[in-house]
Predict the structure.
Amino acid sequence: MSKKLFSLYELMILRRPLITLLVTVLILGWLASHLPNFKLDASADSLVLEGDKDLEYSRQITKRYGSEEFLLVGYR
């Protein structure tokens, strides 16, 4: 199977480098033209699952003590 796949790759990609480059440039151009429409929301609210038990516990502790500062102690 891999030999057939390689021969197909060789026939379609390696033997026609100009067509391959042209198709690649066209695809990249089309993707670049849609780049202004791309929006990424990486805020903390979008990265946390609602209904998460740990999130609810953290919110209860923050509400009780009023601070999100914490101290981490490790020992061996």
Summary: The chain has a mean pLDDT of 87. The CA atoms of residues 32 and 60 lie 45 Å apart. The two ends are 54 Å apart (CA to CA).
